[in-house]
Every structure is written in C-alpha cells, then in structure tokens.
Amino acid sequence: MQDTYFDNTFDIDDAVLERHRTAAESALKRDEYGLLIGSKWVDSEGGGEGVAIDPTTGESLATFQVGTTADVDRAVKAARDAFEEAWGQHSPRQRGEKLDEIADRLEEKKAELAKIETLEAGKPNLHSRFVDIEILVEQFRHFAAVARTADTGRVVPTDDEKHVVTKREPYGVVGAISAWNFPAMFVSWKLGPALAAGNSVVFKPSSKAVLATLEIADICDTVLPTGTVNVVTGSGSVVGDAISQHDGIDKVTLTGSKAAGVATLEGAADTITPVSLELGGKSPNIVFPDADLEQAIEGTIVSIFFNSGQQCTAGSRLFLHEDIRDEFLDRLRERIDELVVGDPLSPQTDIGPMIDHEHAREVKGYISRAIEDGARSLVGDDSDETDAGEPASETAGAPFVQPTVLTDVDDSAEVACDEVFGPVLTVFEWSEREEVVKRANDTRFGLAAGVWTQDLETAHTVADELEAGTVWVNTYDDLLDPAPHGGFKESGLGRELAEEALDDYSRVKSVKMNFGEVLKIG
C-alpha cells in the first residue's frame, strides 16, 4: 500500500521511499489484517478499519480491523474453549515443547519481524533485529524451560496424620494489553509466562503498532491449539475497556501509561479481576566521581536515546557529581554529535523518528516550556552549542526530535517530573551521596535506576537505597538476561521477564488431607 497518510507533511527522498516499500513487501504477509479469533482471520463486528502508518514516510503499510465489545466477547469465548478443551489440558512438559517450537519458528523469521517493527514503530533496524527480536525469542525459550516446572508446589510440614501440599494452577483466560514502543518484544513478555502457566490469551496491541503483534500471533497460532491466542485490534477506550471489564477474563495484564493502568484497575474492580501493570518511569541515572566516564557516557546514551527515548525505563534524570560534571558534559556532547538521526532502515542510523507527529509535538512542547522557564539546552532544540542530531535531509518532514540535553533545571520542574517519553535528558549536579539518593527517589515513579561507580560498597549501598524495581550498576537497559522486571510506586504492579512472572499468571491452591481425627468443636 503506497497511499500517503499525512498530506504534504513529508518530503522524503525517493530512495528512502523505495527502501521502505521494498521492506514492507518482503516482510508483510498481507495488505489487510483481520482479527485473529479462534485461529481464523475475521472482520470486526463493527466493520471499522484502521491504517498502520510508517512514521518515517507517512505511507500506509496495511489496514487492520477496529474491534468492538462484541469482538472481545467472541475472542473470550474462543480462548475459554481452548483453555477448557485443549491448552489447559496440556502437561507442563507439553507446554514447554510448544513454546520451544514457537521460539524455533520465530528464530526463522527474525529478519522479517525486525523489518516490520522498524516500519511500524520507526526504531533503527539494527536495534530491532539485535535487541528487540532477540529478547522476543529468548523470552519464549526461557518460559519454555520454566513451563516444565510451572505447576510445582511444595509440601507443607505437618504431623503424620495429615498431608498438606500447594499447587499452582492457571487462571484460565488472560486479557493482555500492550504498548506501541516495543511491539514485538511485549508480545513475548505477556504470552511467554501466560502460556507457560497454562492460560489462553486475548491480546490487544496498541493501535499505533499492530502488525508485529499480528504476525507473531499468527506464528504462535500455527503451533498452539485452536483459539489459544487471539488478537483483537482497536482502541483502548473500546477494546481495552472491554477486556478489563469482561467477566469471562480471569486475569488482566497491561503495559502502558499510568492513565491506562488506572482505567484498567477501575475496569477490573467490579469483578475483582487480578491485574498486573508495567507503567511509566522517570528513572535516575547517577554518576559517581570514580566512575569509568567512557562507560558511563555510553550507558547514558543508551539510557535516554535508545528507541528515541520512547522507553519506560529511560534514564531521563542524569545526576552528575560536581567533580566530573563539566568533563562529562563536554564528552557527552561530543558523543551525541556522532549519533546519526535518520532513516531507521539505514544501518548507519542510531535514532529514528517518534511514533507520530502528535507525539513529537508533545515532546517538543516539554522542551520549549523548559527553556521558557530558564533551562539551558546544551544539545538539541534551541541549542546554541551544537547542531548534533539534526535528521538527514532525505527524511525531512518526518516526526523527528533531536537528542536534547537540558541543564539549569529545577528538581520540581515539569520536564524533570513528568515522563516525557522522548530523547530529552535533564542534568543535575550533586555533591553528597545521601543528598543524591534522596533526590533520585523524589519521584512518583520507581521503575528503574542506574548507578556508575567502581566502588563495590557504594554500588551495594546505593542499590539498596534506591526505590526502583531494577537497579543497573555500570550498565543500563540490560534486559537480555531473564531477571524480574517491574516497578515500585506508580510504575506498576507485578513482574515480567523471569520466573517470578508466574506469580502473576497462576494462582496457588492449598490441598489439606486429614487421615486422623476430625477437628471437633465442643
């Protein structure tokens, strides 16, 4: 499909247009995607269609169905049938074998899936291929192994006349709602543990990035029993609400904004449906004076500019010790100047566009208001220091935001407190450890944090003191190893990525058997 979605907005070089059209033709199976319900591609009950847009070129990639409450009903029924008649009857070993087979098939499609994610989300293809898609496959492999012991309980010590054990059981039907910034990776974060525990799934991707989810679900469907994984595309206010409020869904999981998390909790309240949430963040990244500055600079680049800053874990608050502040910023500016901003399909590109123009305007609004309030832009929009990060002229008009570094920002400023969700770094100076930890924790979020030091005692002490679900020391955004991931405070409930996720996708039953005297009253 080659219709331009934004009239006269883009001025894209013909070579870039051709590159994107060729990639779409080679990676996408179809121009029109239905809802995946009961292992069949079907139209929405409402008959509405949405358009998947390439943010780099503004061209449509494919159409997809806009689901309704009735479509969620159909998907829940299909998932319930699959759980009761097929998938729910699989043994832990059988579930593990199926997840391994899914991983094998995803492995074969890595290149195509990476292209799809790049086309619909604008992220550099090298990042999609060697980070997101690697984690996608790894998560299925990890939970294939976890599935083999997913039902393991324990024996509770008691006297000789009793036998007490616990069992883990799946909830049944899981409703999963995901965000647009890591569309392929988030599928595995939800499906991996949900399927390992023995649940069937109704999945709703963000309308801003549906194609990778649909393609991955199609691959899963070729391996799993009919109706085990269903996908209903559409808006959060309709499909998302229908999932969170549905009395046929036994567990809800969401990755998204705080507002989406609150709406999900409210929707699930009437039926007391368990909810797990991975929400936003405003993560501190603290550099101590003894840190390896080269490593800390590279880590800072990753923490805020990976995926154009469109990541919940973004280390958007950089705390530099006064002894190294000036040197660090000088070297950081030089490193940012080397970054290539442009076509995400180019292997030279480090930073691609925002997901769309609306989001780009929101991010630029934060920058403009910060500068109006007295912040200084060392790098990026309105900077008089450098032109680093200017997008290539061949993609002029696409929704790019330059990598931006702001200083002279108060801890209580809007840009320092809100999740900007873009390549915007705010810099703060500190002198005492107790002071910087207190400031780092002074946020309503608690998803992640970074610490850079060569002192082991400092690393342990500060990691203990930081209020965050994940603390990285001398690294950042390292999600390749299956360690539990999730937030404190307003950053969410529950854990993903590791065996602990089974706590969110299964429930514990106690079985108490008595072979002696019955308890009597009176």
UniProtKB/TrEMBL annotation:
Q: Which residues form the active site?
A: 278
Q: Which SUPFAM superfamilies match?
A: ALDH-like (SSF53720)
What keywords are assigned to this protein?
Oxidoreductase, Plasmid
Aldehyde dehydrogenase domain residues: 41-511
On whether Oxidoreductase is a keyword of this UniProt record, the answer is: yes
Named from the GO MF annotations, one term is: oxidoreductase activity, acting on the aldehyde or oxo group of donors, NAD or NADP as acceptor
Outline the segment boundaries, as ranges, of region: Disordered. Answer: 377-402
Q: For this UniProt entry, which residues form the secretion signal?
A: none
* Assigned protein family: Belongs to the aldehyde dehydrogenase family.
Complex and partners: Homotetramer.
| UniProt-recorded name of the protein | NAD-dependent aldehyde dehydrogenase
